[in-house]
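Exercise: predict the fold of this chain.
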Amino acid sequence: MVKLIDVHRHLWGFEWFPPSHLRNNAEGLAKKTGRTTEQVLERIAQSPTMDATGQIAIDEMEHYGIDHSVILALDWGMAYGPEEDNQLEYEEFDRLTGEVSDKSKKLSWFCGVDPRRPRATAIFERAVKERGAVGLKVYPPNGYQANDERCFPMYKKAIELDVPVLIHTGGNVWAWPEWVELVARELPDLRIMMGHTNLQAPFETEAYWRGLQAARGKKNIWLDLCDWQALGAVTDENIPELLKVVRIFINTMGAERIVWGTDLPQAGVGSKARGQTERWVDIFKNLPEWGKKYNIDFTEEERDAICHGAAMQCLSNVKFDL
């Protein structure tokens, strides 16, 4: 049976966000649904997405056949300026995420403290040494570039601690993959996963080519195929192109440099997102068979590398129980 590692998922509680972040999302949904903002906020608070216990994450993994997931903590507070922060202190996120991960051999987690936060490097180091974090999540869309000078003390600490970094790419100018390329060039010993490989728009935009171009030739970058299923990659009309893209990624980087992910939570029972993720799993677990349908050759070894081998290589500091 093919083992599957999800290198990119999340765990959230309702109190883990700045109030403005929740209200902004609720206002957008309210306009689409005809509900009031307060009604939407109440639904968000009660949704499966807001499960700080991790039990829904485990249930989802069992449903999809995912053997191990990496939870990426995320610090939204600094994006809202000095007037507002997360409702909980960031280090509380680390403590809670670490406690959830400690309960299951199927979970690992990354610290996600914003590099602009005071004592960010110390917080990251404590997360690894005392709370069991196995890497660092960097989220530039909150208002900084991956090559911001404030990030480098954390990158150098990651090298010292022998843990990888996952850097989000795509969505806005802060998250261009070219900034990640500059980091990879300056710190060749830093293991970097390029989150989303720059795709944060419909699959048809082909934004992933910029990610591939930035990563090409860099021995310390792994391409993260995460959340593409929610952006149209698994529709019937786009699957042939998806498989061509994966083939080119393999030819350019090697299958051992491509990691798989979901970006969950987003899929409830009976939802469109659940069906998308079910197909996303099926395509990669059965990559050679899917390729044959469209006259594209994939080997079992390439399938295994994307499904788990590349993740185990990048996350060489993690003892996976597969």
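Check your answer against the key: The two ends are 11 Å apart (CA to CA).
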